[in-house]
Amino acid sequence: KEGEAAKDGEAAKEGEAAKEGEAAKEGETPAAPAAAAATAEAAPRKRKVTRVPVPTLTEAVTGALNKPGFDDLFASEAAMSKRDEEVRLKTAKRNELEKYVYALRNDLRGKLKDFVEDGVAGEIRDLLDEEEDWVCYGDGEDADLAELEEHLTKLHAKGGPIEARWYNAQHIAEAGATLMSLVERYRAVAASADEAYAHLDESDRDTLRSAAKGAETWYRDLQSEQGKLSAKQDPVLKVEDVRARVRAIQDECERIVNKPKPKPKVE
Q: If DSSP codes are grouped into helix, strand and coil, which group holds residue 117?
């Protein structure tokens, strides 16, 4: 009996061990697929990219148009730009004409009134009224550039001489003073015994005296004639002529006044 009991105990232990082994194997089986799934989820997924060629702007345009169509496109663009420029120029000229009408009308009552005869001023005012009607309310709205220029030139021909007389009166005194100061300067240098001009020979001094005398005589004669004219007459002593005389005497005399001294001789 004791022997049988021992055998029964060993058989029971072996059965339990076998069951535990099988249970262990059964527990390990589902772990393998789970680990594989985790590995698959951790791996980055590759995105599918489809490459499509994109044409450049030039390729798109030239591909859509044949050469005649392409040339027509550029010709049309050039024509539009030309029309825009013509409109801009006409608008600017029309504005210039309108502005001059208003300015001249105001000046004839203001700063220019002493430089124009009353009868002439009246005629110009009538012309200004006509031009205002034409450019603002009449055919001037549709006039081309050449026609607008023609009307503006006509007004300048009337107003220009009056404006020139006014300008001359404002600036002639200053121009004359500049010329006479140069006359006195060159005379003083010609007569100077200063060491700074000791190297000027008699020919140089004669040139200075002659230039000064010629400029003064010219200016005094015209000044005398100008004194006989009214402000409403065109001047004989003009600012631009005096300024030209200033430049002439400077060109002739400054090279002498600034003539360098000769270098001392080396013995």
A: coil
Q: Where are the alpha helices (DSSP H) in 110-144?
A: 118-132
Helices (H), ranges, the chain: 2-28, 31-42, 57-64, 67-109, 118-132, 145-191, 202-226, 239-257
Asked whether 245 and 215 are in contact (CB, 8 A), the reply is: yes
0.85 exceeded by pTM: no
CB atoms within 10 A of CB 256: 19
For 201, the 3-state DSSP assignment is: coil
Instruction: Write the DSSP symbol of residue 138.
Output: S
CA torsion 248→249→255→261, rounded to 10°? 180
Which residues in the chain show pLDDT less than 70? 1-50, 52-67, 70, 73-74, 267
Q: Is 144 helix (H, G, I), strand (E, B) or coil?
A: coil
Both tokens of residue 257? 């006044």
